[in-house]
Amino acid sequence: MTTVATTAPSKASRVIAIISAVAGLILLIAGGVTWGAVSSHLADENITVSGDAANFAGDPVTTPWAAFAQADIIAQHALDATGGKTYAELDQDDPLRDVAMNASFLRASLFTSVVAFGVAALVMGLGIMFILIGWAIWALGGKRRVTLADGGSRAEARVAETRAGQTQATSTTIPPAEPGTPGTTPAV
Closest Cα partner for 137 from 25, 22, 5, 15? Predict the structure, then answer.
């Protein structure tokens, strides 16, 4: 005879699953709030992507793509104004050096917002991963089956469950298969 015992879910796995899911939810919310805050602060600046930009021309700068497009066109405008020279290539007393410096500062500020959007997206992605991991741990920590072959008793099933850190919920006895029936291995 074979004894099959079903065990209760692991309390430790359930606690870990809940902690993981809650942490994921917090990360998802924090990333979303950060994304919204960066977008809102950029909108408050009333920056519009220049009309001669390669992408997003005329759009308000409220997304990482628009911020990147505006930073890119600022670099082009600065190079046009300085004759193709960067800040470091201009003489110290050249009045165009201020133009190059301001363009560099503006680009750095826009790139900082692009990085902030990226970090917010990363945090939201991690939040989703933590939620999925919590769900998987919850599902995998569910009821388990313990099987004892040939003469196993309920007492042996309880011992096996105790060793696994589980408690017995139900127990079923299954008679052995008849020799020659499908799914059995013939004796050699």
Answer: 15
Residue 4 in 3-state DSSP? strand
If we measure between CA atoms, which residue out of 161, 141, 137 comes closest to residue 7?
161
SS3 147: strand
Q: What is the pLDDT of residues 108-138, one digit of tens each?
A: 999 999 999 999 999 999 999 999 999 999 9
Of residues 35, 62, 36, 34, the one with CA closest to residue 47:
62
What the block records as the tokens of 74 is: 């600022």
Residues of the chain with pLDDT under 50: 166-171, 188
Q: Which of 41, 31, 35, 32 is nearest to 61 (CA)?
A: 41
Kindly state the tokens that stand for 151: 């003469």
Tokens of 132: 């999925």
